[in-house]
């Protein structure tokens, strides 16, 4: 039940620097990564989170080259949240690089608004200015709303344990237990990326984690609002039962038309000026948007 802002050698291995980091980068150094990482041990699990400033030009350029698309204006490429089962080495991690790699790169799911057509075309023609500030050649269209389908990066560890659905073993996340006012032993919120969609709205991916004595919940949320077009909230919840050593992952995708969402807010009794504020509140919008996809799966790690 120990919490610390400094990781030990084992934890450094589990929250290793991103694969794109190079030795000639002045920042972040291994010491910077260690200082930015907070860890908490609970039962057989280690929960680690790392927060650093927006990535610099060099790492951004390499990230864009690796992904094949420009990255959002605000990219926190060194940030991550990881939950590790120490006995087996099984882990699930959330990081910006893998999240952006799950963005559609075919153009099949590309949203269009009047202003976006010329903006997207310029990016496709090689005139894109990436987050690093330089020109970036894009060889194919991509989902410029950054609506990732990312549900975490899983390391299956010993025994190759994987998430799966089972009628006998997979149980819904016990929201009633999570609503109890049990002491919070560890909490953090980590932003992975954010874009203003060239002043057409917002797209942001963040991760919250809170740990109690017997259980923990991680919420990775993609909030995308394309003004005049669409609103999306995609939630990945990871629930851990420390005593049973079981991990449940629930993915819920919600979305609705922009005008439909405004009308739904109006029906709640909000004034027009209050609706403008509410359209920035993912928590409020998630209660109104219809579910378009939902999955539930689990993994048992107890030997």
TrEMBL record:
Instruction: Quote the InterPro entries the UniProt record gives.
Output: Phosphatase_reg/MetRdx, TIP41-like
Protein name, as recorded: TIP41-like protein
Where along the sequence do coiled-coil regions lie? none
Disordered: annotated span = 1-26
Q: Might you report a single GO cellular component term?
A: cytosol
* Lineage, top ranks: Eukaryota, Fungi, Dikarya, Ascomycota, Pezizomycotina
User: What is an annotated GO biological process for this record, any one?
Assistant: TOR signaling
Q: Which family does it belong to?
A: Belongs to the TIP41 family.
């Amino acid at each position: 039940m120990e919490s610390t802002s400094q990781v030990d050698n084992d934890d450094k291995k589990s929250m290793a620097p991103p694969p794109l980091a190079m030795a000639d980068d002045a920042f972040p150094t291994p010491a910077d990564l260690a200082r930015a990482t907070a860890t908490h041990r609970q039962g057989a699990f280690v929960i680690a989170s790392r927060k650093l400033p927006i990535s610099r030009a060099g790492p951004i350029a390499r990230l864009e080259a690796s992904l094949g698309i420009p990255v959002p204006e605000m990219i926190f490429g060194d940030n991550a949240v990881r939950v590790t089962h120490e006995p087996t080495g099984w882990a699930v991690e959330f990081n910006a690089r893998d999240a952006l790699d799950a963005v559609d790169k075919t153009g099949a799911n590309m949203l269009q608004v009047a202003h976006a057509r010329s903006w997207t075309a310029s990016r496709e023609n090689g005139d894109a200015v990436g987050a690093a500030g330089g020109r970036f050649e894009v060889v194919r269209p991509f989902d410029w709303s950054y609506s990732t389908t990312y549900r975490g990066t899983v390391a299956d560890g010993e025994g190759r344990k994987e998430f799966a659905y089972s009628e006998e073993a997979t149980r819904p996340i016990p929201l009633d237990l999570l609503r109890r006012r049990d002491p919070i032993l560890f909490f953090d919120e980590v932003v992975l990326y954010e874009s203003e969609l060239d002043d057409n709205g917002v797209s942001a991916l963040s991760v919250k984690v809170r740990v109690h004595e017997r259980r923990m919940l991680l919420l990775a949320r993609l909030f995308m609002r394309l003004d005049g077009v669409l609103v999306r909230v995609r939630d990945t919840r990871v629930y851990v039962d420390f005593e049973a050593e079981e991990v449940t992952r629930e993915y819920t995708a919600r979305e609705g038309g922009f005008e439909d969402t405004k009308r739904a807010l109006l029906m709640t009794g909000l004034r027009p000026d209050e609706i403008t504020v509410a359209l920035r509140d993912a928590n409020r919008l998630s209660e109104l948007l219809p579910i378009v996809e939902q999955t539930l799966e689990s993994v048992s790690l107890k030997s």
